């Protein structure tokens, strides 16, 4: 089974369909800061979670040139007001070109807002993430879905999601029996699993049928395994072909030997007939 090839088929099957925006990619607009004066450091727990999660979404949506995945960059959502700005850990925008990379994202210039936003809880911003940001993202900006997740295993698990209803209300995304949340905007499941080596509670995306989206390391390992399997299959094919060739040679040798024996038998029978004829002729002459 070609696992990576099977995944690519499913990837195309489940990829969301969306219109292109009416804006244009904008790297930077003068007067809108693209970084703050006092950058806040993130823990290694958050850094690992954000990097892995961003990489998974970036590779998964990488087959579409009109999906932009943002990571910890400023998103300005009201022209002329530099205070209307957020910097989500990870955001997904449909309909805008992936490249060029932006210093900040300007919703009015791009003609689009994120369809989904993810925040990973830290002590400094947890209260904001749990309460205020849902209003900002879903009401003020018009984001379709907002998720928060606690990546540190030494703290209580928190994984919640909200979406904006057709009427504009903020409603909870109901979890399944295992606590997973389904994103209708991205057409993906999100569930977390514990990594006891790093003590990180990793949020993992998967396809609607449950097929996980691999990390880069997992994909690399799969490629190695599939290469080894293809190599083994090639070796088995070559061995089978060699056996078949040997069998064909043996069969040809046996057929040649059988032919020689048949020819020799015919020669012996012909000689025997000749001797019989000679004997019969001698007996007639005697009488």
Explain what this protein looks like in three dimensions.
- The chain is an alpha+beta fold.
- The protein has two domains: 3-214, tt1808, chain A, CATH 3.90.1570.20; 215-287.
- The chain contains five helices and twelve strands.
- The strands form three sheets. A six-stranded mixed sheet has the order 1-4-6-7-8-9, with helices on both faces. A three-stranded mixed sheet has the order 3-2-5. The protein has a three-stranded antiparallel sheet with strand order 10-11-12.
- A hairpin with a 4-residue loop joins strand 10 and strand 11 (188-195).
- It is rod-shaped.
- The mean pLDDT is 89.
CATH top-level class of the largest domain: Alpha Beta
Proportion of beta-strand residues: 15-25%
Whole-number tally of structural domains: 2
Could you list the spans in which at least 5 consecutive residues all have pLDDT below 50? none
Q: How can the largest sheet be summarized?
A: 6 strands, mixed
Question: How many E-type strands?
Answer: 12
- Which CATH-level-2 architecture of the largest domain? Alpha-Beta Complex
N-to-C span? 87 Å
Helix share, percent: 40-55%
Order of helices and strands: HHEEEEEHEHEEEEEEH
Major beta sheet, strand line-up: 1-4-6-7-8-9
User: Which fold name corresponds to the CATH topology of the largest domain?
Assistant: tt1808, chain A
Please compute the radius of gyration using only Cα atoms: 36 Å
What structural category arises from helix and sheet content?
alpha+beta
């Amino acid at each position: 089974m070609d696992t990576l090839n099977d995944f690519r088929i499913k990837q195309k099957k489940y990829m969301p369909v969306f219109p292109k925006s009416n804006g244009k990619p904008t790297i930077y607009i003068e007067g809108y800061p693209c970084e703050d004066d006092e950058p806040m450091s993130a823990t290694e727990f958050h850094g690992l979670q954000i990097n892995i999660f961003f990489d998974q979404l970036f590779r998964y949506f990488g087959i579409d040139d009109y999906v932009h995945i943002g990571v910890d960059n400023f998103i300005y959502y009201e022209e002329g007001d530099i205070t209307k700005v957020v910097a989500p850990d990870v955001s997904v925008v449909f309909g805008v070109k992936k490249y060029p990379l932006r210093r900040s994202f300007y919703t009015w210039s791009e003609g689009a807002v994120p369809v989904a936003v993810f925040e990973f809880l830290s002590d400094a911003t947890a209260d904001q993430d749990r309460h205020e940001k849902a209003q900002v993202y879903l009401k003020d900006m018009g984001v379709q879905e907002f998720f928060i997740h606690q990546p540190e295993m030494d703290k209580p698990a928190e994984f919640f999601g909200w979406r904006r209803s057709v009427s504009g209300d903020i409603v909870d995304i109901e979890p399944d029996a295992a606590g997973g949340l389904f994103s209708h905007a991205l057409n993906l499941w999100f569930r977390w699993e514990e990594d006891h080596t790093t003590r990180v509670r990793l949020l993992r995306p998967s396809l609607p049928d449950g097929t996980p989206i691999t990390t880069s390391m997992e994909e690399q390992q799969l490629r190695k395994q599939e290469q080894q399997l293809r190599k083994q299959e090639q070796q088995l094919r070559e061995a089978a072909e060699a056996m078949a060739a040997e069998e064909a040679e043996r069969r040809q040798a046996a057929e040649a030997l059988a032919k020689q024996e048949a020819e020799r038998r015919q020669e012996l029978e012909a000689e025997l007939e000749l001797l019989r004829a000679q004997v019969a002729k001698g007996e007639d002459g005697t009488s």
